[in-house]
Amino acid sequence: MMNSLTLACLPQNNPNYAITITPKNCFRNSAPCFSNSIPIKTTKTNFINARIIPCKCTTTLSSSSSSAAASTSNPNWVKRDEGFGVDERVFVVVNFYLFVFIEDPEDEVSKHLEFLQGRDIHGRIYINEQGINAQYSGPSEDTLAYASWIKQDERFKDILVQISPPTHKHAFPRLKLRYKPSLLEGGVSHLPLVDSSMRAMPLTPSVWREKLSNLNKDVILLDVRNGYEWDVGHFRGAQRPNVDCFRSTSFGLSESEDIASDPLANVDKENTEILMYCTGGIRCDVYSTILRQKGYKNLYTLKGGISHYLECEGPAEWIGNLFVFDSRLSLPPSLVNPDLKTNESIKHEVDVNTVFAKCYICGSQVSELRHRNCANLDCNLLFLCCSSCMNDLRGCCTVKCTSADRLRPVLPAPGEPLRCLEYWTAVIHWERPNGKVET
């Protein structure tokens, strides 16, 4: 008989429970109480039950990482030392990218796979002829060993490695390390990205801050992200981008010169300063190359993106949180750099950070700058939601979605869906005992 297996704990704001699942055919030989179970049906297996049990652990358990994760339940164990300045016992998220010519990317992939054998790393690492783009998580001993190994290569010695604050578990469900024709969504392999002269001039965070403090009508500030990212945080003076994927970004690309929604319409391409920013810098490098081909001259990007800026400068000129594309979803500035001094000016910035975001459904102020996915699996819309609408619509984005056939269960943690289910490859149904879908 197969024993129950604790898969993952609930989010940090509810650390006292864990999700335990047991194959349903094992229940014949056991007599536990499953009054708090959530029946779950998959397309590949029989029914299983997800049982909520008391738990003191705040880590994710897996065959390869349970011992490492168990030692990282206290995120305050971080030490600032030499090298990357992170205690090897904690989990961290690492990001880096570099546009550089790689003659044999398939062979490069093989080398990286060989190095990572036996290391507890999850994430997305893509390599092609134009370079590398990596976002991954794991125990810092493994994640930083990989970053150090990368920088030993002459081609990658100047790569900017960004380390996010410690976490109690992996931020990605699995490792995907492979050759990818385009390092960024939307297809960019045709662009001369390896040619640094075709990209915008990178500005250090301190210079960027100085420019933002003196913005005028002759300078244009572009947020080269998605609209939903802007909704939880952005620089003052940046217009909300009306796109939900990078390939839809079209600043300065419209055939007509009088498009009202385009901040680059009718600008002087020769003399207008254009400041561009994104999360980590890669989207700005790509988009500045596109604009350069269109004749724009004075292009500037934020080196290392928002994450590097918040680490160096704190929340000055910034409003809100930083949206990230992993299970954390949203990071307040205080988490990006916990070592920042909490002086009065920073406290004021934090106060401002909490009063601008609105619920997508009712328009009221949200108490948590964190998106959720619609509980309707066939919708899966990423949206901001207040606690009232979350409860009324059971985690869905519309009334219509509440009657969908396939719904995620929403547990009683504030503003948090059962996120571990999103990582299961099976198609999940939440059903009542009578077989009807819970709405």
How is this structure best summarized?
InterPro entries: Rhodanese-like_dom, Rhodanese-like_dom_sf, Rhodanese_C, TrhO, TRHO_N. By secondary structure, the chain is α+β, with helices and mostly antiparallel strands. It is 19% helix and 20% strand.
Structure description:
This is Rhodanese domain-containing protein. The protein has helices at 66-70, 105-116, 140-151, 205-212, 227-232, 282-293, 305-313, 333-336, 344-353, 387-392, and strands at residues 5-9, 17-23, 37-41, 48-54, 91-99, 122-128, 131-139, 162-163, 175-179, 201-203, 219-223, 233-235, 273-277, 299-302, 318-320, 322-323, 330-331, 372-373, 382-383, 429-430. Among the domains are: 75-179, Alpha-Beta Plaits (2-Layer Sandwich); 196-353, 3-Layer(aba) Sandwich (Oxidized Rhodanese, domain 1), CATH 3.40.250. A five-stranded antiparallel β-sheet has the order 1-2-4-3-20, with no helix packed on it. The longest helix is centred in the first third of the chain and has 12 residues, at 105-116. The protein contains ten helices and 20 strands. The model is unreliable at 1-82 and 412-439 (pLDDT under 50).
- Counting DSSP E segments of at least 2 residues, the number of strands comes to 20
Shape: globular
Any idea of the CATH class of the domain at 196-353?
Answer: Alpha Beta
Which class best fits the helix and strand makeup? alpha+beta
What topology, given as strand order, has the largest sheet? 1-2-4-3-20
> What gap, in angstroms, lies between the N and C termini?
34 Å
Question: What fraction strand?
Answer: 15-25%
Mean pLDDT across all amino acids: 73
In the CATH classification, which architecture of the domain at 196-353 applies? 3-Layer(aba) Sandwich
Total number of helices = 10
* CATH-defined superfamily of the domain at 196-353: Rhodanese-like domain
- The helix/strand series, from N terminus to C terminus, equals EEEEHEHEEHEEEHEHEEHEHEEEHHEEHE
Q: Enumerate the spans where pLDDT stays under 50 for 5 or more consecutive residues.
A: 1-82, 412-439
What portion of residues is helical?
A: 10-25%
